[in-house]
Specification:
CATH topology of the largest domain: Arc Repressor Mutant, subunit A
CATH superfamily of the largest domain: Winged helix-like DNA-binding domain superfamily/Winged helix DNA-binding domain
Strand order of the largest sheet: 3-2-1-4
Strand content: 15-25%
CATH class of the largest domain: Mainly Alpha
Number of strands: 6
Order of helices and strands: EEEEHHEHHEH
Mean pLDDT: 93
Largest sheet: 4 strands, mixed
CATH architecture of the largest domain: Orthogonal Bundle
Distance between the termini: 40 Å
Number of domains: 2
Shape: globular
Oligomer: single chain
Structural class: alpha/beta
Length: about 160
């Protein structure tokens, strides 16, 4: 069964989605998932607690069951790369493409990063342009800037 919960955060409302004990979505804003029931599951409650700790500055990594399957092997490698970028650090789209084994596939890396179903938890906000500029983020650049500022990286 798919469940969802809308929680407040310093960057606005977040919609959390749980399917059979796996966190399958974290969306910015109020996004009611199709075929989902609004309810507080243990996983969604734990996710909210960990997000509160993150926003309070007391949590730097998340410990939650995440979706294992990405759309391709390349996308799976990109998710692994995102999870390897530590709190308080940034990396580039070029770094992500190289990690996934295809340094020239920067745009494909960007698309795979954009397809991240659980933003913040899988920290796609830590990926910036090669020139150091903030680029692309499903929540918008203001939210990306806020998340990086929270992690003490000021843009």
């Amino acid at each position: 069964m798919k469940s969802y919960l809308i929680v407040s955060s310093p960057v606005g409302d977040l919609t959390l989605t749980d399917s059979d004990g796996v966190l399958t979505g974290l969306s910015f804003g109020t996004v009611i998932p199709r075929d989902a029931v609004k309810q507080v599951t243990p996983l969604l409650s734990d996710t909210k607690t960990q997000l509160d700790e993150y926003f309070n500055g007391t949590r730097k990594t998340f410990r939650l069951p995440l979706p294992k399957d990405a759309s391709s092997e390349f996308s799976t490698k990109i998710r692994q790369f995102l999870l390897s970028v530590p709190y308080g650090k940034t990396a580039t789209y070029s770094d992500a493409a190289a990690f996934a084994g295809n340094p020239k596939a920067v745009r494909a890396a960007g698309r795979a990063i954009g397809d991240n179903p659980v933003a913040i938890i899988i920290p796609c906000h830590r990926i910036i342009g090669k020139n150091g500029n903030l680029t692309g983020f499903n929540g918008g650049l203001d939210i990306k800037r806020s998340l990086l500022a929270l992690e003490k990286m000021y843009f």
